[in-house]
Structure formats: structure tokens, C-alpha cells
């Protein structure tokens, strides 16, 4: 999605071509692809729908950015929402008229709850308002990168709340994506300054507390070794039915 938005921005002349920015965004996308590699079940028709959705959404974000930021229009975010929100509502209604309304009953609506539907519509409206304000202050590309960060935060929230299992490959992919986001935000010069400052403070700490510094380095190495070995080690599982059959055979032999 970020790469598609960047290319759409170049195509419509919203942003100038920048190879460094394209490389940075590509690294973020590669990290997300690595993280989702183990969970992909390829279906051709779904892939085509997803590809079309990415292209349409990237075009929409770039055109919204043109409405809000270009010198030709320079439209207020709420005014832009006033223009394109009814169009989106009409298109959604046309799709629902064919796909959902014929099978929808009032009992299902009451089962969900009118208050729940009202709260959902309110949150959707606030989301649209926040999106147009964000695009107006930044760009459509930043909007899609915020979506990547949101997905990563959702994954970590599911790990902490529901204990969702995540593989070492997924951790590696999310780390690449987060590193790319940090680089996109700060830039090379700022990162170099931060590293220089961190190295200076680490050297000062080592001069004042040399023994503690060695202990910290040794502990960090041990943690990395345990993480790597834990990710490479095979899962220790057993077949319960196989164990029961072995126990049954041994008890049968003893009885005879």
C-alpha cells in the first residue's frame, strides 16, 4: 500500500520522484511481507480483489491530498469531506442494495443493537474526519505508513491481551518495518546524531563503571543467544494417542 500510494503520487504529480524515499518505503513493505509470509493462503481471485483495492485506495488518498494541499484547490478538510463523503455513501448503498439488503432483516439489526450501530457510525465519521486532517497536514503516504504502524501495534496488543503466538520470522519482519518507519521519520542525519550521542554517553558510563559495563554486555550477548536458539529450536511436542498406545502395550505385557 505505501509503495502504491507513492507511485500514484508520482503519477498525478503530487510529489516529485525520490529514489531514497522509494527505497525506504520498499524496505517497510518488505518487512511487512516477511511478517505475513507464514500466514498467506494464496487465492487468485482474492489476490486480484486485493490488488484492485490497493490501487483504488492509493488513487483515492492521492486525489484527496490534491484537494487539500495543492495550490489549485487548497480545500478545507471538512469541506472536502462534505464533497466526497456523499459519493462514497451512494456507492456503498449501491453495493449493499445487491449484496446485503435482500438478505437483511430487522431482527438481525435489533440483534446487533441500534446503539451499537450508532456508535459504529459515529466512530466511522470521526475516523474520516481524522484522515482528511492528517492528509491535509502531511500526505497520503504518511497516512498509509501510519496504517502500517497501526497494524504492528494491533499485533503486539493481541500478543499481550490474548497471548496470540508469533513466530521468530514475524518478529524479524516487524522489526524491519519499524526500523524503516523510524528512518523515514528521522532521516539519516538525525539518526547519526542520536547514535553519536548514545556512543558518547556509553563511553562515559564505561569509564565511570567499567565492571558494570562488562556485565551488561555479557548479559545482552546471553539474551541474544537464547532468543536465536529459541527461534531455531524445533517445537517439543508429543502425540498423546501414541503415548497412550505405548502405555497400553506395556501394561498388557505385564498382565500376561
Write the layout of secondary structure elements.
Layout: H1 2-11, H2 19-35, H3 44-69, H4 77-99, H5 106-112, H6 114-137, H7 140-162, H8 168-186, H9 188-208, H10 210-232, H11 240-255
Helix pairs in contact: 1-3, 1-7, 2-8, 3-6, 4-6, 7-8, 9-10
Question: How does this structure look, described?
Answer:
- This protein has 256 residues and is mainly alpha-helical.
- 82% of the residues lie in helices and 0% in strands.
- α3 crosses α6 and α4 packs across α6.
- About 3% of the residues have low confidence.
Question: Please, how many helices?
Answer: 11
Write down the secondary-structure element order.
HHHHHHHHHHH
From the alpha-carbon coordinates, what is the Rg to the nearest angstrom?
26 Å
* Assembly classification: single chain
Rounded average pLDDT: 75
Q: Give the distance, in angstroms, between the N- and C-terminal Cα atoms.
A: 69 Å
Largest sheet: none
Q: Could you say which structural class the secondary elements and strand pairing correspond to?
A: mainly alpha
Low-confidence stretches: 233-240
Keyword list:
mainly alpha; single chain; 256 residues
Summarize the structure.
The chain is mainly alpha-helical. The chain has 11 helices and no strands. Mean pLDDT is 75; it is low at 233-240.
Amino acid at each position: 500500500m505505501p509503495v502504491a500510494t507513492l507511485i500514484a503520487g508520482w503519477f498525478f504529480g503530487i510529489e516529485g520522484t525520490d529514489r531514497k524515499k522509494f527505497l525506504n518505503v520498499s524496505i517497510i513493505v518488505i518487512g511487512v511481507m516477511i511478517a505475513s509470509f507464514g500466514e498467506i493462503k494464496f487465492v487468485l481471485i482474492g489476490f486480484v480483489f486485493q490488488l484492485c483495492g490497493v490501487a483504488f485506495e492509493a488513487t483515492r488518498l492521492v486525489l484527496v491530498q490534491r484537494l487539500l494541499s495543492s495550490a489549485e484547490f487548497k480545500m478545507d478538510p471538512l469541506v472536502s469531506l462534505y464533497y466526497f463523503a456523499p459519493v462514497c455513501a451512494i456507492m456503498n448503498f449501491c453495493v449493499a442494495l445487491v449484496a446485503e439488503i435482500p438478505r437483511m432483516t430487522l431482527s438481525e439489526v435489533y440483534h446487533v443493537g441500534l446503539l451499537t450501530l450508532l456508535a459504529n457510525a459515529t466512530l466511522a465519521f470521526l475516523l474520516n474526519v481524522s484522515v482528511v486532517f492528517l492528509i491535509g497536514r502531511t500526505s497520503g503516504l504518511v497516512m498509509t505508513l501510519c496504517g502500517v504502524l497501526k497494524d504492528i501495534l494491533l499485533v503486539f496488543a493481541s500478543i499481550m491481551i490474548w497471548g496470540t503466538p508469533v513466530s521468530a520470522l514475524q518478529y524479524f519482519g516487524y522489526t524491519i518495518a519499524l526500523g524503516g518507519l523510524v528512518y523515514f521519520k528521522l532521516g539519516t542525519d538525525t539518526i547519526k546524531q542520536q547514535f553519536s550521542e548514545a556512543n558518547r554517553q556509553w563511553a562515559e558510563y564505561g569509564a565511570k563503571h567499567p565492571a558494570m559495563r562488562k556485565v551488561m554486555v555479557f548479559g545482552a550477548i546471553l539474551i541474544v543467544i537464547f532468543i536465536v536458539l529459541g527461534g531455531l529450536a524445533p517445537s517439543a511436542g508429543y502425540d498423546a494417542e501414541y503415548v497412550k498406545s505405548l502405555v497400553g502395550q506395556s501394561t498388557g505385557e505385564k498382565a500376561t
